[in-house]
Amino acid sequence: MDIRQIEYFVEVAKHLSFTKAATTLHVSQPSISKAIQNFEAELGVPLFYRSSKQLELTDAGQAVLINSMQVLESFQNLRSELTDLMQLKKGQIRIGIPPIVGAEFFSRLISYYKELYPYIEILLTEVGTKRIRQEVESGELDIGLVCSVTSSNENLETIRFLKDPLLLIVHESNPLAQKKKVQLSDLAKENFIIYRKDFILYDRIIEECSKNGFFPMIACETTQKDFFIEMVQAKLGIALLPEKLAEKIPYTSIKRIPFHEEAIHLELGITWKKNKYLPFSVREFIKLAHEYVLQ
Description:
Layout (H helix, E strand, L loop, with lengths): L2 H13 L2 H8 L3 H15 L4 E2 L6 E2 L1 H27 L5 E7 L4 H15 L3 E7 L2 H10 L4 E4 L9 E16 L19 E5 L4 H12 L5 E6 L2 H9 L4 E5 H4 L7 E4 L7 E9 L6 H15 L1
Parallel strand pairs: 3-4, 3-5, 7-8, 7-9
Antiparallel strand pairs: 1-2, 5-11, 6-9, 6-10, 6-11
Helix pairs in contact: 1-2, 1-3, 1-4
């Protein structure tokens, strides 16, 4: 048994197709079929049902798949550690970054990291916090920059950067613009320009509105900061934006109003997978993040 057999098996199990696995791995289909047959012979059990039109895992195949994925992860950790021991300050880091607030709050950190390690390739993926956590756990991302530091996922480690309250942004023609502070219940009859459903802030706003006895009337959902602002400027609704973003709105006709009780905050943090070997590129990013928090 060798690591290549395990890699081939996991890829076939992922696609449930020898053809697709061969395409992904850039290997001939007969080579993969032969490797899987040898793997089954060594284990003494069939791993796939081949009689049906759709390839299926046997019960033994399901059990082998779980352990095979752990073996591959351990093997990848070993390769990463050996690379670090050779003091190669190269490689790549895959970072998930949330739209709207990501560039505004994290650009300085990422820029500083790039200056220190110009030979490390930074791959940025812009998705919401929920998706970021999923992809960090699955290994598709090394690190996630997230909009909430509280999570029930015990497989992830998280540190907080800052906690920024949401402000109401509203056009000056709206009667709410005359208030110095507002209650969330004051917004019950307003049209909301709101974050997309895969954003943690979407859930938080819906949750707090429900506590105040109403479900918000949603005019539209977006991931773009400028779209929030332009929709409010066009008098098509109100929005809730983090204070640090709201302060930079260029229109004097848009008013920023705090809440009596700061029930909703943007909590920015960085998350990574626990109990996984972290390569040099990832460890250094986390180290810089800690320094960034303390500034």
